[in-house]
Amino acid sequence: MVAKIFWGEASRTSEPEILDKVKEIAKVHDTVKDHIPDLLWHHTFTNPTSAIREALGVPDPTTGSRVLYILIFRKLEPITKLHGKQFFDVWRQCILCHLTLWKEGVYHRDVSPGNLMWYWKDGKRMGVLNDYDLSSLANVQGPQGNQRTGTVPFMARELLTEDGQLGKVKHLYRHDLESFIWVFAWISLRYRQGILLPRRLRPFDEWATLGAVACGEKKLVFLDKLTPSAPPDTDSSLWAFLVGCFLVLKMDAENRFYLRFQEPSDSGADQQSNAEESDPDAFLSKFTRSKSWLAYSKPSE
Fold first, then answer.
1. Beta partners for residue 39, in sequence order
2. Please, are residues 90 and 187 in contact by the beta-carbon 8 Å criterion?
3. What are phi and psi of 169, to 5 degrees?
4. In this structure, is residue 11 part of a structural domain?
5. I need a labelling partner for 183 at 20 to 30 A (CA). Which of 124, 204, 238, 293 fits?
6. Which residues does residue 287 pair with via DSSP β-bridges, in sequence order?
7. DSSP symbols for 35-79
8. CB burial of residue 170 (10 Å; 0-12, 13-18, 19+)
9. Which CATH number goes with the domain that contains 221?
10. How many CA atoms lie within 13 Å of 74's alpha carbon, on the beta-carbon side?
11. Is 139 a member of any domain?
12. What is the pLDDT of residues 138-193, one digit of tens each?
């Protein structure tokens, strides 16, 4: 078992409440069943920080008020221990769980390596989408769509712009799926056989120390310098898969950029773009139907 102790925002739906909703979804969707954390016990302390601030005479005591939570979960394994097709399979399971939850109104909004876990069941590795303390529910008023949530190195580039950081960009499904791609790259290029490479050999270290906008700029430079050939000591099929995913991201971003400057036309291109914004399956299929995804997802002979 593991304990999670944290101060959560009082204005946000609590993680235990969100997990209750997730469990209900798991009862009717196999993509979620067995792919969520097992909450064994939890306790919420009744005195928020606003009560302490009010007692101390702090102005606006309820602003940013937090509540202390203790949650006990069944222990899981980190996804960084896996590599190759094993890693891909668990990562893909987490994507499908996330997709179903999103369509059912549970928005995770913090896809990162630490939140992708796994365990054994009946001789199979089961991927788990973990950690819902930054999640939100579609039918609940409060901190929601435009709030800046996520772990900076893995956030979508659109959320790492100045507008994104000011809350002017709505957090959409495609942003979380882009985070999954950055997670795959982060782990694949910084680990070998489940072991973290020495600092001099691993990329992206700087991303973890940069501010949001600066990190977004670094990601743009990385995408612009993509090369078809794999970096030294990187599996060529894995690199081809990553390049294919990044090309989808680049082309999608460029299409949306150009559409902003086009007049509405009879071709329906603008309507199609808007439809994809609200259709998670359509956006995911851009990746899953690509040649690189199909090639890499084939079972090893």
1. 73
2. no
3. -115, 120
4. no
5. 124
6. none
7. SS--EEEEEE-S--HHHHHHHHT-SSTTTT-EEEEEEEE---EEG
8. middle
9. 1.10.510
10. 12
11. yes
12. 987 554 444 566 799 999 999 999 999 988 999 999 999 999 999 999 999 999 99
Residues 67-124 have pLDDT tens digits of 888 999 999 999 999 999 999 999 999 999 999 999 999 999 999 999 999 999 999 9
pLDDT at 257 over 90: no
Report the chain's terminal Cα–Cα distance, integer Å.
37
d(CA 134, CA 107): 9
What number is the average pLDDT over the span 217-230? 91
3-state secondary structure of 3: strand
H/E stretch holding 285: helix 280-288
Task: Characterize 102-116 residue by residue with b for buried, 16 or more Cβ atoms within 10 angstroms of its Cβ, and e for exposed.
Answer: bebebbbbbbbbebb
**CB count in 10 Å sphere of residue 76:** 17
Token pair of 115 as six digits: 């939140």
Residue 5 lies in a domain: no
Measured in residues, the chain has a length of: 301
Tell me, yes or no, whether 72 lies in a domain.
Answer: no
Q: In which domain, by residue range, is 140 found?
A: 30-37+77-296
- Token pair belonging to 231: 């970096």
pLDDT-derived band at 206, boundaries 50, 70, 90 = very high
Distance CA 244, CA 290 (A): 7
Residue 248 to residues 177, 187, 214, Cα–Cα distance (Å): 12, 19, 23
Q: How far is the CA of 274 from the CAs of 59, 154, 174, 263, 288, in angstroms?
A: 44, 24, 12, 14, 20
Q: How far apart are CA 85 and CA 164, in angstroms?
A: 34
Task: Find out whether 88 and 122 touch, Cβ atoms under 8 Å.
Answer: no
pLDDT for the residue numbered 23: 97
Give the total number of structural domains in the chain.
1
* Tokens 């996330």, located at residue: 98
